[in-house]
Design goal:
This protein is α/β, with parallel strands linked by helices and 308 residues long. The chain folds into two domains: 223 residues, P-loop containing nucleotide triphosphate hydrolases (Rossmann fold, 3-Layer(aba) Sandwich), CATH 3.40.50; 62 residues, Alpha-Beta Plaits, CATH 3.30.70. 38% of the residues lie in helices and 26% in strands. It is built from twelve helices and 14 strands. The strands form three sheets. Strands 6-7-8-3-9-10 form a six-stranded mixed beta sheet, with helices on both faces. Helix 3 crosses helix 4 and helix 3 runs parallel beside helix 5. It is elongated.
Amino acid sequence: MAAISAVGLAKSYGDKAVLNGIDLEIPEGSVFALLGPNGAGKTTTVQILSTLIPADGGVARVAGHDVVEQASGVRAAIGVTGQFSAVDNLLTAEENLLLMADLNHLPRREGRRRAEDLLRRFDLAEAARKPVVTFSGGMRRKLDLAMTLVGDPRVIFLDEPTTGLDPRSRRTMWEIIRGLVADHGVTIFLTTQYLEEADELADRIAVLDGGRIVAEGTADELKRIVPGGRIRLQFADAAQLGAAAGLFDYAVVDTEALRLDIPGDNSVVTVKAVLDTLDNASVRAEALVVETADLDDVFLTLTGEGAR
């Protein structure tokens, strides 16, 4: 069953078309990442699907509810964490969560129980009664996500949730996000500019550019649609490098680094063929590294100037 579906979503601001008819189909209990350059329409997509703004065209359903006709049902089923923290700096972590429980109309005892559970789950129990103004960026983002979970949402929209975090805090957030899906079966709709983040977390990834989805698939599927795979050979001296360079027509030679890059599909057959060619010519490589195209290659090829 689809947790999120959309057909032909469109949105313009004046003469500028931000979304130009995008389609989505996101299964329950999965992580979906939407990638795109600044201004591509990622946040606009989140705002439409979370009922914050109306679309100019198309239809969408979230958690089984139409985002226009059944907006209240959508809001009851979702949680949203935006790019900027929504916590109240003057309150403590516990007070922020209790406030969110009141906004979700939870009974006082249930609200307190849920707040305590979330503080423990997000490793914030020791800081529960400290004002948020004293928190680090990573602690703020964890509290922000914890507040999103007070209402026990089935679908969570995370709009660039790790922006500004240091690498350690970012990885902590990744573990929390994985746990939400694995342990609670929620669906995550993630927008991010960190390609490693999408690679680490997402079951499926869509690339948004110019108001359209220009590619969609798993990380591995996307990496296979752009060139970028290569076999990198390292040599001990220039003589061995020169001999190897003469064996491969399309190899790229780096004489300073004593390195040879051979374009290829990186299959076992191709790697074996390269090694056999070197062996037959009595050329010795010091090291071999197989490199595949990564999401950076996909992003740069399919968006902006790369696409044009």
